[in-house]
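Exercise 7. Given the encoded structure of a 146-residue chain, write a plausible sequence.
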């Protein structure tokens, strides 16, 4: 799977998705992003339109994870979930020697962390997604789609 395919499968895509936790397992070459996904629909009455659901985005076959420093004027000093948007990593971001060393199936993404005004760069062979059975931290309920 790709992040683009994942985005197409969700009611609001990855719009307004927030990262709660980042876990990198270097032995398994596996990166887990614990996220809150916006699943409410705008046509639903308030507060249903603002529903979020916990999920895991897992990158397998991770070649590298690079987290840039936050910008000094950003909200990096305030704990909490972080908002992100993503794009395929532009070719000029990865040094040519490194890009040439990556296996051909590698997917490279840059997650723009809006609260930090900086990026997390990930190169991995696959992406998977699963809803979490954990309880929603905000209201104590697990939200289910459909």
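Solution.
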């Amino acid at each position: 799977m790709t992040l683009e395919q994942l985005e197409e499968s969700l009611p609001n895509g990855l719009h307004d998705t927030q990262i709660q936790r980042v876990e990198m397992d270097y032995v398994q070459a596996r990166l887990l992003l614990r996220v809150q996904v916006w699943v409410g629909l705008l046509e639903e009455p308030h507060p249903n339109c603002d529903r979020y659901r916990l999920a895991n985005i897992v990158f397998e076959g991770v070649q590298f994870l690079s987290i840039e420093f936050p910008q000094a004027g950003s909200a990096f000093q305030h704990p909490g979930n972080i908002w992100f948007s993503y794009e395929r990593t532009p070719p000029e971001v990865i040094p040519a020697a490194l890009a040439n060393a990556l296996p051909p199936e590698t997917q490279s993404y840059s997650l723009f962390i809006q609260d930090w005004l900086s990026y997390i760069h990930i190169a991995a062979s696959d992406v998977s997604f699963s809803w979490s059975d954990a309880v929603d931290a905000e209201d104590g309920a697990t939200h289910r789609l459909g």
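Remark. The two ends are 22 Å apart (CA to CA). Students should compare their own answers with the one above.
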